[in-house]
Amino acid sequence: MEVKRTVMTLCGAGTLLPFAVTGQEARPEADKPNFIIIMADQLRADLLAREGYPLNTMPFTDRLSAEGTWFDRAYTPAPASGPARVAMLTGRFPSATHVRSNHNIRDAYYTKDLFDVAAENGYKTAMVGKNHSHLSPDRTDHWVGYGHGGQDNNGSKTPENEAFDRFLGSTKLYSHLEPAPGTVENQLPYRMVTDAAQWISTLNNEPFLMWFSMAEPHNPYQTCEPFYSMFPPETLPALRTGAADMVTKGPEYQLLAEMMEQGHVGYSENLDRLRSIYHGMLYMIDTQIERLCDELKAQGVYDNTIIVFVSDHGDYVGEYGLMKKGVGLDDVLARIPMQWTGPGIVANAAPHDAHVSLVDIFPTFCEIIGAEIPIGVQGRSLWPLLRGEEYPREEFSSIIAQDGFGGMYYTKEDGEDYIAEGAVHKEPGFFDELNTWTQSGTMRMLRNGDWKLVYDMDGNGQLYNVKEDPSEIVNLFANSRYSAERDRLVELMLRWEVSTADPLPIPRNRYRYKRNPHNYIFSE
């Protein structure tokens, strides 16, 4: 089945309708900056020291953020890998891409994506790491795949790395509660940096786009020394919530815990150790981000390279008594780190207060290089914000996220055969938290300042002041004292839903399609 659905936009006389927008003229190839998207998988934003966390888990990345612009109100389009990654590459929300689950990636719907535009504008392209999107090797100049079980069979591996990959496969995508075998040189991010640096060295001053996509700190939770011992369980900050809070959060959270205990027997008893390993993985990732930047400097390309660091979504990391992900749009899952450094980007030690999303990366890249923003892109260019220029405050005063593949909620009353569905394997040790029970239904989230609204297809509402209640435990939706705030946010969410209705396909004849030069949604 073909993945990309290109939409033709011819008018009656054969003249192209306004197909795309751009805020500047296309740059000459020699002036185009390199572009690296460093993506971590399942990295929770508030576990970084710059966010106020008491442990220094990613010191280099925090220092790097101060050299550019970083956002503490950045959100994933959806807290699941496939939908989030396709949304980032296409600049479209999951409701528009049709990729609302990890099992619909081949259904991606769009005109052009990030790699299309990069190639059309003279960029060499590479994907190094975890894909889990509609992208395919034939669409890049360089491809070395890595997943949660190790390196794909498309590159050379040492015997030591072969052994390490076999070890990863033995974890059944869960954990290894002792120090991982081998050294950091066997860990996937280290090997990815080596691959990335080697490819960059082959380029002859040609601009390049690289998606450097780490499979960590996603489970399997594992890391080697010295990272394993850096954050002992007894030194970790106390959790804000616990298993008792599942009752408050709702039956889906309790069901997730029940299934997780069946698949990962004893996980609740090992929760502190799992948290400890997760923290160590953050530090290990950080060392390799620093190593990648050192390689760029050694090759003389760092000063002309824009680096974007993000994650696709977060991880409970113990909150509500859970690990991994699965249900809800809580900030521990939906809010992500996002920082930009490189030529033309102003330095801000403090976070930018704009509300942004992964879908904003693609249109920003287009404006930076002077390329057209393809029709159907729903994200907004952040280039004026990154340059420290004036921008419409209303446009970035809120952001949305989506969850669920649709239909009615599937509950325990509909059946509890988790093995037949594939959520749990007969052989203990495997559990897929993204399953029929946790992903059914449809849910929307809106963040606006300190306020957060969540609403589902059954009319169930959640309203939180995330500044006063960061764990989202006290639901104010039905509290009459906050009815005015609730109604304002419901109206704003409705505006987002109407404004992000998919424009594809645009009318084929006569009608002119108008867009803002920066692809803003609400502003002229």
Protein model, in words:
The chain is of the alpha/beta class. 27% of the residues lie in helices and 16% in strands. The protein is built from 15 helices and 15 strands. It has helices at 59-66, 81-90, 94-97, 114-120, 159-170, 188-201, 246-249, 251-263, 271-298, 331-334, 361-369, 383-386, 418-421, 436-439, 483-499, and strands at residues 20-21, 34-41, 69-75, 124-129, 142-147, 150-151, 208-217, 305-311, 335-341, 356-357, 373-374, 399-406, 441-448, 451-456, 461-465. The strands form three sheets. The chain has a nine-stranded mixed beta sheet, with helices on both faces. A four-stranded antiparallel beta sheet has the order 12-13-14-15, covered by helices on one side.
Compact summary:
With 524 residues, this protein is an alpha/beta fold. The chain is 27% helix and 16% strand. It is built from 15 helices and 15 strands.
